[in-house]
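Q: What residues go here?
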């Protein structure tokens, strides 16, 4: 099983210099991917601009969006932007897509929240794939380019939870960009089985299975996770947030994290993408010692 690392882009005060340090450290470490997601109504970098910077800052790791909310973007422009990143990274881009969990992001982008459906997502993916195939999807003299380095376009993962959303994505996605809130291994196993079944029933090749979770290591780990989640989950009702804080994410020792990663590997997970709850580079170095 491979181990990816997410940029601490949701940390308060993180700047371009800090993100570059993290990106270069991940690229030089034992990690398989450098991950970053999208929010609109939040104090975080815009995802396409960040992807372009990460393509310049790195030369080895895959760049993984976890996830882009497709409805916040025009599909033709999004296809062009992602093809550009694929070129800049020399074919190292994997695109996670989803419908998002926050209506306020749609409002901030001036998008109708009624489009927040997996049917609309599939329609947009179809447009993007046609752009990458050099079809003329709009009335222009030439098709919209550039052509992606990866034939047919970047690998596409779906950020979906639940059997209905998983089945809806099986016809077009190459795998799943999963998430584990409380490291429930039985739930992770059930989700992996649902994905495999949906892909098989859709006549698709075996899906790529990835998942992610927040983490902190060492003394004060749970306090670190709690601080981060209170900042990140600014849209959740306070009582509900306080109830989930003691059980969300990983907080423990290096040995405990190594054991948890081994358990996910035993479930057939292809990659775990860890999400830091601090921009302290020592946490990155500690994980590197675990996964070497």
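A:
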């Amino acid at each position: 099983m491979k181990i990816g690392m997410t940029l601490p882009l949701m940390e308060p005060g993180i700047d371009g210099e800090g993100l570059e340090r993290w990106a270069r450290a991940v690229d030089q470490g034992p990690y398989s991917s450098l991950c970053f997601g999208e929010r609109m109504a939040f104090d975080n970098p815009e995802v396409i601009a960040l992807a372009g910077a990460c393509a310049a800052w790195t030369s080895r790791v895959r760049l993984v969006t976890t996830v882009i909310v497709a409805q916040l973007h025009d599909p033709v422009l999004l296809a062009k932007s992602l093809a550009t990143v694929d070129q800049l990274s020399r074919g190292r881009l994997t695109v996670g897509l989803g419908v998002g969990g926050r209506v306020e992001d749609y409002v901030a982008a001036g998008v109708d929240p009624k489009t927040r459906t997996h049917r609309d997502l599939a329609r947009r993916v179809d447009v993007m794939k046609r752009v990458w195939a050099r079809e003329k999807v709009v009335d222009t003299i030439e098709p919209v380019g550039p052509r992606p380095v990866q034939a047919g376009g970047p690998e596409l993962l779906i950020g979906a939870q639940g059997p209905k959303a998983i089945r809806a994505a099986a016809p077009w996605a190459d795998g799943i960009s999963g998430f584990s809130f409380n490291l429930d291994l039985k739930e992770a196993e059930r989700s992996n089985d649902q994905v495999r079944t949906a892909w098989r029933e859709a006549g698709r090749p075996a899906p790529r299975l990835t998942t992610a979770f927040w983490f902190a290591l060492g003394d004060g780990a749970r306090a670190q996770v709690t601080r981060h989640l209170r900042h990140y989950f600014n849209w959740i009702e306070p009582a509900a947030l306080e109830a989930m804080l003691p059980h969300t994410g990983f907080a423990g020792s290096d040995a405990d994290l190594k054991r948890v990663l081994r358990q996910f590997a035993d479930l057939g997970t292809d990659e775990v993408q860890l999400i830091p709850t601090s921009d302290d580079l020592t946490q990155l170095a500690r994980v590197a010692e675990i996964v070497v």
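A: Context that may help when evaluating the design: The chain has a mean pLDDT of 97. The CA atoms of residues 214 and 275 lie 4 Å apart.
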